[in-house]
Amino acid sequence: MDPSSFSNADKIATTNFQLDVTVDFDKSSISGTNTLTFQVLFDGVTEIVLDYQGLDISLCEVMGQDGKFNQVETDTHFDNNLGSAIKLYLTDSNQQIKLIYNLEVITGQSVVARITYATNKDSQAINWLTEEQTTTKKLKYLFTQCEPIHCRSVAPLQDTPSIKTTYSANVRVKDPYVVKMSAEETDPTKNTDGTTTYHFNQAIKIPSYLLAMAVGNIQYQKIGDRTGVISEPGENALDKYVVELKDLETLLDETEKWLTKYIWGKYTILILPASFPFGGMENPLLTFASPTIIVGDGSQVYVATHEIAHSWTGNDVTCRDWSNMWLNEGFTVFEERKVSEILHKDEPDFALLEAQLGNVDLWVDIMNYGVDNSYSSLYPQLNGHSPDDSFSELPYEKGFQFLTYLESLMKTKDDFQDFIRAYILNHQQQSITYLELKAFFESYVTTKYGAATAQGIFAKIDWDSWINKAGKNPKEWNIDFTTDSQRKFEKLADDYIDTGARPANYKDYVDTKDPQLKVIFLNRLTARQNELTSSLMSLIDSDLNCTWDKNPEIGQRWLPLAITMKYEYAYNGDDSGAHYYISWQGRMKYINPIYQQLVRYGRRDLAYKWFKQYQNFYHPLAIAGLKKIIFASATEEENLMLQRAEKAVNLGLIKL
Ligand SMILES: [Zn+2]
């Protein structure tokens, strides 16, 4: 049913779960119970299988007909990539299948199970920050990141997007910590022991990966009728974020106008401490976002548009498994760019530039995987690997391109907008695969245009090539994202390289309000890096100040190029731009390329040193990725060197 989950949700499926837990910052652990309600889908099912990872499970119980919980026998299975499975036997030891604690396990029947557990240090989802790692440095902080398969390390459950459940939570924590979750909140209860219990309820069914929790010194600030921001208080955080996100209500209104009614009630963005490994995470009611989207010039606020659009595609209509992830991401990118186009009326190229840049990033990933690799397709075959391994631009940009292609086959763009609205309304609260999308598209087009016209359209669509192959460049599908402004900025880069001197119009770069054009310039430099020299890099940097640009999208391109070109000013030493860049934020998209290039270009020593300096700051997922980069490609000799260095650091012989 879902190759990334051990659960038997096809036989007995969770309909609701309730967390009753305590957050203990001294032990860095969340402990308590998860009480799950299941519906039996298959007569005589003999066990419930749950996913878990990084948890110590101490007791498993099933409720009998008398309403009392009885401990049940269990079995566990461990897997390196996907975590563990625990089986709760619904049979007694004599294998009496039909009546267990007087409970009949027949189709339609409810079963309630309660698991007592505590999270341990191996939990992949929970990031525990020390006071020093936060902005206000007053209290510790924790946040979760459950997509794709890490909810199993917050609580034992059927961790698969193929089923959707409601959930509620009672979370107890020491005062004055504040808890937020991806659910409606009711008034907290003050306890007599210096703790407070926060209460949450999510009445709309969601897949497990949308469970989210943040605990820390955090506050809410309203922006519009339905919108608000949560973060640590103060002028370096909440005050600044509220200013940059002042148009949040407009973003929500415009997205709703383009799509269908917003079903979730409120919409809040929680801006996390800078170690959050992603740009944003679309937890319902409560998007989590990296502070790297707050650049000061509003240029990264499109991430908010993206997360808002997920309220329809992803959170309401959900992919059934991680091979179909493009149904979440491709649709959301497509919608995000439609809304961006409306919001950037004065910049007619805005959405096209996004698509153009997305295509470059897409092909970098395709080249990295190899064109024949299934990860380079819209349908990665995971074969038991973690879906984190196949996480790339593919579901986003290839998905967007496929939808752009389908749109191009319709009589008008409005027809395709109508199709998307109908697709959402027809699959509300469902988990689907691309086969359902295909069937719905075909029936929609047939009804709209008649069978003959529809057949003509279907004959053009090579689904197999689009879904299962890396495929072609967009131009070969007759979709073109190029623009005049793009060509102008590529020429600026060409002029630097061809003349080796400062072009007369270099100020165009400095003066542009559109950072996408700067990225186009840098992509061109990267594409022609064989013709660059370190001294030309130095000239460009003194003209355009690339090393210290506050927009992280610039550093993401410029700094790895600087390492490749051995332009040492940008990276050599702890006062360099690259060192600052990897130290103030831990977003994987930004830090990985720096470490990768250091390793590739003979500075594994620097990569190792910086990693050791910031490994307490980065998120566990980022650490796992960096370990692969820094250690996996090492030669035997380098590995020995690293092991010796690690030993020396542990013994206190090397100070970082
Ligand atoms: Zn997304």
From TrEMBL:
SUPFAM superfamilies for this protein: ARM repeat, Leukotriene A4 hydrolase N-terminal domain, Metalloproteases ('zincins'), catalytic domain
The protein, known as: Peptidase family m1 containing protein
Positions annotated as active site in the UniProt record: E307, Y396
GO MF annotation, one: zinc ion binding
Biological process, per Gene Ontology: proteolysis
Chain sites annotated for binding a peptide: Q145, C146, E147, P277, F278, G279, G280, M281, E282, R587, M588, K589
Comment on bound cofactor: Binds 1 zinc ion per subunit.
Subcellular localization(s) per the UniProt record: Cytoplasm
Primary location class: cytoplasm
Family from the record: Belongs to the peptidase M1 family.
GO cellular component assignments: cytosol
